[in-house]
Amino acid sequence: MEEKQYFSRAELKKEFEWTDKMVKYLPQPEKTKRGYYASQVVPIWSKEQVTQTFLLPEVQETYTRKMKNKEKRAQAARKAVATKTHRLTDLVVQQGVTVQRVSRKKLVHRAKLNHEIFMVSRNFDELEPFEVDDWKIVNTIRHDYTNYDNLLEMISSRVGKTTAFKIIADQVFPEILAVYPEYKQTIMQQWQQHCER
Known about the structure:
Elements: E1 6-8, H1 9-15, H2 20-23, E2 31-34, E3 41-46, H3 47-54, H4 57-95, H5 104-121, H6 134-144, H7 148-155, H8 161-179, H9 184-195
Antiparallel strand pairs: 1-3, 2-3
Helix pairs in contact: 4-8, 5-6, 7-8, 8-9
């Protein structure tokens, strides 16, 4: 035989989104149970009592009104998010991207320096020589010779940052490619990687 289901006031409100007004229409609880504290007695209603009460016109009206209000608040929240996202993406586009052209020798030196700073900051011991390949070169260009990091800082912790991040990537990589066409393959690979985040 299937065990009879019972619901407390808190469960009805949390799981089924009942309001206090709806709960007032419930009949006398079929039974009670012990609460969190030994002295606490919690009234509980059977599933049948809850179902019958929910079908009452007054309860239906209250519930419908609550759902409409909830949807209005959700729409307002979505609109606010869309507005903030639009403002942030506009700001990103207005900032534009700057890319500085430097020699490969300078890029290699900077990449090695960045690696040394990272190792020291993490208290790592250098086990192998650090080789600077094109991937590290493009990373160095992006972080040290463009305003990429400034743009990321600008969108940090703001509504719409995911959308803004994609716009930044779609702005930064073409500009890097225009200034450093010799690294085209790596730039395209990194751009693709950013698009998939």
